[in-house]
TrEMBL record:
<dbReference type="GO" id="GO:0043527">
    <property type="term" value="C:tRNA methyltransferase complex"/>
</dbReference>
<feature type="binding site">
    <location>
        <position position="103"/>
    </location>
    <ligand>
        <name>S-adenosyl-L-methionine</name>
    </ligand>
</feature>
<keyword id="KW-0819">tRNA processing</keyword>
<dbReference type="InterPro" id="IPR055361">
    <property type="entry name" value="tRNA_methyltr_TrmB_bact"/>
</dbReference>
<comment type="function">
    <text>Catalyzes the formation of N(7)-methylguanine at position 46 (m7G46) in tRNA.</text>
</comment>
<comment type="pathway">
    <text>tRNA modification; N(7)-methylguanine-tRNA biosynthesis.</text>
</comment>
<dbReference type="InterPro" id="IPR003358">
    <property type="entry name" value="tRNA_(Gua-N-7)_MeTrfase_Trmb"/>
</dbReference>
<feature type="binding site">
    <location>
        <position position="76"/>
    </location>
    <ligand>
        <name>S-adenosyl-L-methionine</name>
    </ligand>
</feature>
<keyword id="KW-0949">S-adenosyl-L-methionine</keyword>
<feature type="binding site">
    <location>
        <begin position="203"/>
        <end position="206"/>
    </location>
    <ligand>
        <name>substrate</name>
    </ligand>
</feature>
<comment type="similarity">
    <text>Belongs to the class I-like SAM-binding methyltransferase superfamily. TrmB family.</text>
</comment>
<dbReference type="GO" id="GO:0008176">
    <property type="term" value="F:tRNA (guanine(46)-N7)-methyltransferase activity"/>
</dbReference>
<keyword id="KW-0808">Transferase</keyword>
<feature type="binding site">
    <location>
        <position position="159"/>
    </location>
    <ligand>
        <name>substrate</name>
    </ligand>
</feature>
<protein>
    <recommendedName>
        <fullName>tRNA (guanine-N(7)-)-methyltransferase</fullName>
        <ecNumber>2.1.1.33</ecNumber>
    </recommendedName>
</protein>
<dbReference type="Pfam" id="PF02390">
    <property type="entry name" value="Methyltransf_4"/>
</dbReference>
<feature type="binding site">
    <location>
        <position position="51"/>
    </location>
    <ligand>
        <name>S-adenosyl-L-methionine</name>
    </ligand>
</feature>
Length: 256
């Protein structure tokens, strides 16, 4: 490892609220806190909520501020981003926040059955070309249900028509109960003030997309812990990969 990288790792050791398992080392080393986050780290019996693909951890930290009686864990593979949230949580003395640096593909190695109450997916990469990497695909749902309580809630907040439509088809195909869904969050009706406050937390990516005039979509659904699961077998009738890339570059929403 280069001197620079070593220094960076040494620096990261200061963050007692960050757990790092970015590499395949977890294949051979069982994660000692699996099933024990409450007693070993948080030292309370409060529910646990995850933000998967948390980036800088805005949701994790802001939700922790709003709900001191809930434990929040942000997960991402990119360490450099989550230091922002980790630093903020430490500076603000937030004890109900942790970060886990790993690939979400192996997320079930870190949490035991029924250990997690809710999952937030905030501005996840739509992964149009690769269904296996999409965070709402059956591959990931199968992993989530191994540690989510039965009927635990999954929140999806996104700028992507593609991911939103795909996830909608996923809930329909598998009869996951949808609790709320809107293609235009900031003009949606029927949301109470508390919910709106939660949903108005803006991540780095969200602020970028809003500046470019994109509608923000949001849905929340329940994920049952048992039953067969299948990929939606319909074509996604929205933008193709190239127009999506152009949108992201130009800021013109070609996907409406
Ligand atoms: C578009 S960014 C959104 C970040 C943040 N939620 C936000 O709204 O600003 C997607 C994030 O998901 C993370 N990510 C995507 N796939 C992942 C995976 N399989 N494992 C871990 N992190 C992943 C990326 O590293 C990135 O930080």
């Amino acid at each position: 490892m280069s001197k620079g990288k070593l220094a960076k790792f040494a620096d990261m050791a200061r963050y007692e609220n960050v757990f790092q398992y970015p590499y395949s080392v977890v294949e051979n080393v069982p994660f000692e806190m699996k099933g024990h986050w409450r007693d070993m780290y948080f030292h309370n019996d409060n529910p646990i909520v995850l933000e998967l693909g948390c980036g800088k951890g805005e949701y994790t930290v802001e939700l922790a501020r709003l709900y001191p009686d809930v434990n929040f864990i942000g997960v991402d593979i990119k360490g450099a981003r989550m230091w922002t949230g980790a630093t903020q949580a430490l500076n603000d003395g937030l004890k109900n926040v942790a970060f886990l640096r790993t690939n979400i593909e192996i997320i079930d190695r870190f949490f035991g059955p029924d250990e997690v109450q809710e999952i937030w997916l905030t501005f996840s990469d739509p992964q149009m070309k690769n269904v296996r990497k999409r965070l709402t695909s059956t591959y990931f749902m199968e992993r989530y249900r191994r540690f989510l309580v039965d009927g635990g809630i999954v929140h999806v907040k996104t700028d992507s028509n593609f991911l939103f439509t795909y996830t909608t088809y996923m809930t329909e195909r598998n009869a996951f109960p949808v609790l709320f869904s809107t293609t235009d969050l900031y003009h949606a009706e029927g949301l109470d003030v508390d919910t709106m406050r939660i949903l108005s937390i803006q991540t780095y990516y969200e602020s970028q997309w809003i500046e470019r005039g994109l509608n923000i979509k949001y849905m929340k659904f329940r994920l049952p812990s048992a039953g067969d699961m299948a990929e939606p077998d319909v074509e996604i009738p929205v933008d193709d990969y190239r127009s999506y890339k152009r949108t992201r570059r130009s800021g013109v929403d070609m996907r409406k």
